[in-house]
Design goal:
- This protein is an alpha/beta fold.
- The protein has a seven-stranded mixed β-sheet with strand order 3-2-1-7-6-4-5, with helices on both faces.
- A hairpin with a 2-residue loop joins strand 6 and strand 7.
- Helix 2 runs parallel beside helix 5.
- It is globular, with a radius of gyration of 16 Å.
Length: 179
């Protein structure tokens, strides 16, 4: 298999194939994501409704997919915290005695695989996708899974990635594989 593109997002930077394409001094992820979205001239209004995990996965994926034919691209992602960041916010909305209002808009994002759904919707992908919750980044596991998809003929490319986000700690390492 060949790794054709790599995007890393961490420490308020977006790096694509070893080139810094966006950097800011903003420390909070939500502000970083907004600034990156505007600066990179991305046009997808649903971005603003996404939870932070989906925004992280979306931004990293967008850097790779925007210049590629992606009609037969599968998605295989993983992280450690699942959707815990959003789960915590949803739980807070339930716990509030004064402002009890469990938000359906937040509840939608209480599964980590929603981020691959957002990417699939944006790029009209109708291929395989998976989201794994692992103790740590396991590139060999992701690559083996991707290789099975490629060899089965269900996809021509696989976008793999580690998208970890909890509170203000975040890192995306997303890459495109082909046979």
């Amino acid at each position: 298999m060949t790794k054709t593109d790599i995007c890393i997002i961490e420490n308020s930077k977006i790096i694509l194939n070893n080139d810094i394409i966006f950097e800011t001094q903003t420390k909070h992820f939500s502000e970083f994501a907004k600034e990156a979205y505007k600066s990179l001239d991305i046009h997808y209004p649903k971005f603003h409704k996404m939870d932070n995990l989906s925004k992280l996965a979306f931004l990293a994926s967008e850097m790779i997919l925007k210049n590629n034919n992606h009609s037969k691209t599968a998605l295989v992602f993983a992280n450690k915290s699942s959707s815990l960041d959003t789960d915590f916010k949803y739980q807070q909305s339930i716990n509030s005695q004064e402002d009890y209002f469990p938000s359906p808009a937040v509840f939608v994002y209480t599964l980590p695989n929603i981020c691959v759904g957002e990417i699939s919707i944006k790029h009209k992908m109708q291929t395989e996708n998976a989201f794994f919750v692992l103790d740590e980044f396991d590139e060999e596991f992701l690559n083996n899974y991707a290789e099975q998809i490629l060899q089965s003929g269900k996809a021509e490319k696989v976008l793999c990635g580690w998208v970890e986000l909890y509170q203000e700690s975040y890192k995306a390492f997303v890459y495109l594989l082909t046979l």
